[in-house]
Amino acid sequence: MSAEPKTAAHVTNHGNGHVTVTNFAGRAHVALNDKPLRANFRRAMDGLMAKRAAQFPDPGDLAKLRARGAAIKERALARLPELLEQLEARCTENGIKVHWAETTGEANRIVLDIFQGHGVRTVVKGKSMVSEEMHLNAFLGEHGIEAVESDLGEYIIQLAGEMPSHIVMPCIHKNKMQIGQLFAEHIEGQRYTEDVDELTAAARRVMRARFAEADAGISGVNFAVAETGTLVLVENEGNGRMSTTLPPLHVAVMGIEKLVETMADIPPLLALLPRSATGQPITTYVNMITSPRKPGEKDGPQEIHLVLLDNGRTRVYADLELRETLRCIRCGACMNHCPVYARVGGHTYDAVYPGPIGKILTPQIAGLDVAEDLPHASSLCNACVEVCPVKIPIADILVRLRRESVRPSASQAVKGGGSGWTLSEASAWTGWKWLNAHPLLYRMGTGVLSALGHLIPPSMPPLKAWTSVRTKPKFAAQTLHQLARDKGFDDE
Fold first, then answer.
1. Pairing, β 19-22 against β 10-13
2. What is the DSSP letter of 8?
3. How far is CA 247 from CA 114, 165, 203, 216, 240, in A?
4. What SS3 state is found at 129?
5. How far does Cα 473 stand from its chain's mean position?
6. CA angle 222, 156, 193 (to 5 degrees)
7. How many other C-beta atoms are found inside a 10 Å radius of the C-beta of residue 312?
8. Would you say the pTM of this structure is higher than 0.85?
9. ω before 462 within 30° of 0 (cis)?
10. Model confidence over 268-296: pLDDT tens digits?
11. Is residue 169 classed as helix, strand or coil in its secondary structure?
12. Could you count the other beta carbons within 10 Å of the beta carbon of residue 129?
């Protein structure tokens, strides 16, 4: 453990050059004292865990399905470079225009150029975590293009001016009273109500007009099939289908890791994703998009663009251990079962990807120098590992990132590695090593602590970090060797 509390800041880039500097520990203290927030999350997480358990009644079948899902993603990652080229070729053959973006800034510029080239002024968006990663809405707004979220949860947090607090259920932190107040304030003619059906109907009225007027639609991609050039989107509200079929122009944004090899890989993943995410046997809509509208077809966009985003993923991919992070299918099960996330909520992480997956993904993409505190925001209880549908070893990767954060900067294997290194901590561990490697030093040191340890003031480093939130530890009056000798054991 560190001799001093970690205060490394997490920096969020909002896509316009503006960054926000925060730290997890400070925000966690605020969240822990927010009783409505904690109640909202506790109720939601308990329900999601129960629904998931009901969907997987046979542990043996679940183990086999998880192994298959992990194998599918592992196989795709093993061939990722060539499969990406195959996806581009198939999409191009199908009439989908493919663009490559190394950074979020480059991806935003590509999307803007497409929209400006088509005179786009209004956009409807299906749910997309990659677009959140790009901070695309704010970027388009700065250039005079209005982007409206069509997913109900995303629409609610857009009205509130907030980031998603969960990757599947973005407004899970809000209750019906808070949502009713938001709608009354922001939707013209809407009275305050806590009736869920009435609130949903109000959002639907707004969205129907938006769908009809939109110049373009934006979506994410749950899976892309290299074999056929097919983009697969799963959703429950129909907004994803409306966003990708009604407007004449469709732009899909996708992280390069969302690839699978063949269409036969999709059914096992669909058997895992919704059941792990929301406790459903299948989502209401499964959209498979392979081409723009063809002659004789009655719906669909006239033009489709696919933007493939790297944003640090290639660097993650280069390390065989860290590469396993890229298996993620964004189900959110790790969050639903995480005791830390359930108590502090998603906004405490101040990151696009909160919870356990965010603790390993954000530091690798943004850099340990700006998110060094996130790998430490875990008890390593392994709950996330036990429920991950594609068997990502999250706890092992967290330990690896903690190790990388304190390695000398010259040996960086992760962006920003070594940023958590301090002379005091390095000296403490060097002293610990010497103490335990030399019996005489060990006996002298433990003897001194037994005799004089109670005199050390609580405010003195390294005790200060511990006693700031805990009582001062009591040093034993006798060392282990002394106790052993008293019991008649020979400790030589």
1. antiparallel
2. P
3. 14, 29, 19, 5, 12
4. helix
5. 36
6. 135
7. 18
8. yes
9. yes
10. 999 999 999 999 999 999 999 999 999 99
11. coil
12. 17
